[in-house]
Design a protein that fits this description.
Number of helices: 8
Order of helices and strands: EEEEEEEEHHHEEHEHHEEEEEEHEEEEH
Structural class: alpha+beta
Radius of gyration: 27 Å
Shape: globular
Largest sheet: 7 strands, mixed
Helix content: 10-25%
């Protein structure tokens, strides 16, 4: 019997995955739980085990294909598990059933079912605006139709409710420059959609974003000319995902940054009194842990920062799940401490340490990286005074720690007099999404985090 091996749901927010590498080929005999394929998502990489012993009868997705959750990746013949000398099945004659295909030279990209590649949000917008989504040229990744593409393709208003734009009205036109030479082995990720985007711009209508690698209106990006000593570093898949995420976040969220100065004298005394005990237990007691505890408590008291934006509404989350940025061999990742407001210092310390170890050893999972409702980032020992971090979507806020330095501060003496003292001081910068977070809410949240840290209100 043929058993379908499908794309699993690799995390609550993951709808598709990329076939990174097949670990088997058609005709191979595999054991139950043997790794069949490496799957990459925007969260992490995972190996998919075989659900049964048998022979790999058909492989239906190529390396590099983007495949939707529950789509069939391959088929296992469980009756052929012991027949190692049986002839291998014939290679499939039909093209692999994948969700995405590279954009064609003309017309929108198609899914395996023949329809346009589009998100549910884009399809909803098409229905509401009487747009045939199969006729919309997508500007998203691999030609995917986005909601903005649909809105730009809406019929122009006419009749009593509005007036169609005059054909004589000037329309913005951008003529892309000749593509720059690309050294061998280097992909040009933005170029695949440039021609389609340029054609859309020439047709006019709606907001027109800059074209990566080309320019905007009168500004054109100079072509790259190789020079002696230059080193061209191709984007890895993780770096491309990070770059796209950061670009989207700056484009979608109107960022505002507010900064607080935090006197860490009492928290540092508390840490110094207990750090050796924690070290003996195998977990470092860090200032980051205290900041995460204070952040979780402040989020529970100021829930406007524990939210995400929808199309025309926003959600305030019931759980406080804090993403903590840590380094990994493939770059920065943001694993999640779940229900952080229910954990004390000890629970936060253990969670951060275990997640950081898994990230450093490449064992971080998709579930570890999913579901953050707010994020905290720490620049490390070689940090700087402060900086405004880019919001980790779909959160509406991120708190960035600065470098801890000893500074002269004014404190109150035993008789109420002002005295000068040398204390460890840190600046913290809150970046927040001004679409739903106003200055009052943001400042109240940051003030509360500062108060908790300055008073050393922790049970260690």
């Amino acid at each position: 019997m043929l058993i379908d091996v499908t794309m699993p749901q690799l995390g609550e927010s993951v709808t598709e995955g990329t076939i990174s590498r097949w670990l088997v080929k058609e005709g191979d005999v595999v054991a139950k739980e043997q790794a069949l394929v490496e799957i990459g998502t925007d969260k992490a990489d995972s190996e998919l085990p075989s659900p049964s012993a048998g022979r790999v009868a058909k492989i239906l997705a190529r390396e590099g294909d983007v495949v939707a959750v529950r789509a069939i990746l391959c088929q296992i013949d469980d009756a052929a598990g012991a027949a190692a000398d049986a002839p291998a099945p014939r290679a499939p004659t039909a093209p692999p059933a994948t969700v995405d295909a590279a954009p064609a030279a003309s017309g929108p990209s198609r899914s395996a079912a023949g329809g346009a590649l589009a998100s549910p949000m884009a399809r909803k917008a098409a229905l509401e605006n009487e747009v045939n989504i199969d006729d919309v040229r997508g500007t998203g990744d691999r030609g995917r139709v986005t909601r903005d593409d649909v809105m730009r393709a809406r019929p122009a208003p006419s009749g009593d409710g509005g007036r169609a734009p005059s054909s004589s009205a000037p329309q913005p036109v951008i003529v892309p420059q000749a593509p720059a030479p690309v050294p061998a082995g280097v992909q040009a990720p933005a170029r695949a959609n440039t021609a389609a985007l340029a054609q859309m711009i020439q047709q006019g209508g709606g907001f027109v974003p800059p074209i990566p690698g080309v320019g905007y209106n009168a500004f054109k990006v100079p072509a790259y000319r190789p020079g002696e000593g230059d080193k061209v570093v191709p984007f890895t898949r993780r770096r491309r995902i990070t770059a796209d995420h950061m670009t989207y976040s700056k484009f979608a969220s109107p960022h505002v940054v507010t900064v607080a100065e935090v006197d860490l004298h009492r928290t540092s005394q508390l840490r110094d009194a207990h750090k050796d005990r924690y070290k003996k237990e195998g977990h470092p007691l860090t200032v980051l842990a205290f900041v995460v505890v204070a952040t979780a408590r402040a989020l529970r008291e100021n829930p406007q920062l524990n939210a995400r934006v929808l199309d025309d509404a926003y959600v305030v989350f019931g759980d406080v799940n804090i993403g903590v940025a840590v380094d990994s061999p493939e770059g920065l990742v943001v694993p999640v401490v779940r229900r952080a407001d229910e954990l004390g210092v000890r629970g936060i310390v253990r969670s951060i340490d275990e997640l950081a170890k898994r990230a450093r050893t490449g064992k971080i999972t998709v579930d570890d990286l999913s579901g953050a409702t707010f994020s905290v980032t720490n620049p490390g020992i070689k940090g700087n005074l402060f900086g405004g971090a880019i919001i980790n979507q779909p959160n509406v806020g991120i708190l960035r720690m600065g470098e801890i330095q000893k500074r002269v501060v004014v404190v109150e003496g035993p008789n109420g007099e002002d005295l000068m003292a040398i204390h460890p001081v840190m600046y913290m910068a809150l970046s927040y999404d001004h679409r739903i977070v106003d200055g009052v809410a943001a400042n109240s949240f940051l003030w509360r985090v500062t108060e908790i840290l300055e008073k050393g209100e922790f049970e260690v």
